[in-house]
Design a protein that fits this description.
Structural class: alpha/beta
CATH class of the largest domain: Alpha Beta
Oligomer: single chain
CATH topology of the largest domain: TIM Barrel
Radius of gyration: 23 Å
Strand content: 15-25%
Helix content: 25-40%
Length: 421
């Protein structure tokens, strides 16, 4: 469920007409619904109750500081994968005690940043990282709380580029090496072993891969406790998918996900951490764009819009589907026409949809790309010297620009010409 509905013939974000935002900030732009963000976060907290738990939002899915503050003010933790994301979490007012630092390539500078600023735990991905963290923590005379990320060799049944839990993936420590690496962690100075971490991928639409992975985590917990480790926290990652189409095939609900967690690891007496991103932010955001031209091609018609692959990379990068709807509600029984929906970037890959049935549209009409809140703005670039587009946050009948569109002068002034020229 989201809070983007037609009212009086016009698509609204909560109580704000998208056409009103477009008139003020121009297109294209991203718009997020506060009510949807809050609702989706609360679905996870309710699903895990009464287990002790912390829902850590995966910042990589949507990193705007205003959005992080919305969630942080509700009590959410944050899952960060870089020093920049750590700084964003802190800027949003989230305390270090609710920040989990993940990522396969943490640098010593990033480790130092989090140890000095406060961190709930590091999810350690390799033995070299573990030793580096021990050195940094010892140099600062502090102790680093850690969970080792275990690779359970489970097929997440998702897109190959976002599967992370198979043995050929770069993530985590092979589960058959877990006991040896935990033993090393226990011996290292400056390291406090607090738990186990696992994350098998993104946009999972079935519970069965999660259940396989979590069953292995439960077994490993018992084994490690038998080895003398105090395993008090299980970080189960994120990855639950969202519906990108309006079909009847919906991914599992957070309530079902929570029940599965309780069934597989609830008996262990551990605090549970989860790190959802897409399911909180994905359907909480739209990309709004204007039609530039209708172009008749050979055997197909093109709808050329002012958004492009640099604004929303998922279709060109993953072949991903986003529903595209007109901002002005079409009349009932309006006949659809097939279009290839494309952007202005000089790449054939700058294509959002092929042979997509849409109601008739003309130059200047507004369209909205649904389910664009996750991995939209965060993956955007200035390719073709196209400015990053604004992000807008709506709450009720209010809206505010939470990232402004840079001017061309601001973009050009970042470049410098060497003195010898």
């Amino acid at each position: 469920m989201d809070h983007f509905l037609y009212k009086n013939g016009s698509l609204h974000a909560e109580d704000v007409a998208l056409s009103d935002i477009a008139a003020q900030v121009g297109t294209p732009f991203y718009v997020y619904s506060t009510a949807t963000l809050e609702r989706h976060y609360k679905l996870f907290t309710e699903a895990l109750s009464p287990l002790p738990h912390l829902v850590c939002f995966a910042i990589k899915s949507l990193s705007n500081i205003a959005v992080l503050k919305v969630l942080g003010d509700l009590g959410a933790g944050m899952d960060v994968v870089s020093g920049g994301e750590y700084r964003r979490a802190k800027a949003a007012g989230v305390p270090g005690s609710r920040i989990v630092f993940s990522g396969v390539g943490k640098t010593r500078d990033e480790m130092r940043l989090a140890l000095e600023g406060g961190v709930r735990q590091f999810n350690v991905e390799s033995e070299p990282e573990l030793r580096a963290l021990s050195e940094v923590a010892t140099s600062l005379a502090v102790t680093a709380p850690i969970a080792l990320r275990i690779n359970p060799d489970v097929d997440a049944k998702t897109h190959e580029k976002i599967a992370t839990g198979k043995k050929e993936n770069k993530f985590g420590i092979p589960i058959d090496r877990a006991r040896a690496v935990y033993a090393e962690a226990a011996r290292l100075p400056g390291i406090d072993v607090v738990g186990i971490d696992v994350h098998i991928g993104s946009q999972l639409t079935e519970l069965e891969p999660f259940e396989q992975a979590f069953a292995k985590v439960a077994e490993l917990t018992e084994t490690l406790r038998g080895d003398g480790h105090t395993i008090r926290r299980l970080d189960l990652g994120g990855g639950l998918g969202i519906p990108y189409t309006r079909s009847n095939e919906a991914p599992p609900l957070p309530l079902d996900y929570g029940a599965m967690i309780k069934r597989t690891v609830g008996h262990l007496g551990c605090e549970i951490e989860i790190e959802p991103g897409r399911l909180i932010s994905g359907n909480a955001g739209l990309l709004v764009s204007s039609v530039i031209y209708l172009k008749q091609g050979e055997g197909r018609d093109f709808l050329i819009v002012d958004a492009a692959m640099n604004d929303l990379a998922r279709p060109s990068m993953y072949g991903a589907h986003h529903d595209i709807v007109p901002v002005v509600e079409p009349a009932p029984a309006t006949a659809a026409q097939e279009f290839d929906v494309v952007g202005p970037v000089c790449e054939t890959g700058d294509t959002f949809a092929r042979h997509r049935p849409l109601t008739p549209l003309g130059e200047g009409d507004l369209v909205a790309f649904r389910s664009a809140g996750a991995y939209g703005a965060v993956m955007a670039s200035e390719y073709n010297t196209r400015p990053l587009i604004p992000e807008v946050l709506v709450k009720g009948d209010q809206f505010a620009v939470i990232r402004a569109r840079p001017s061309f002068d601001e973009i050009l002034n970042r470049d410098t010409i060497p003195a010898w020229m």
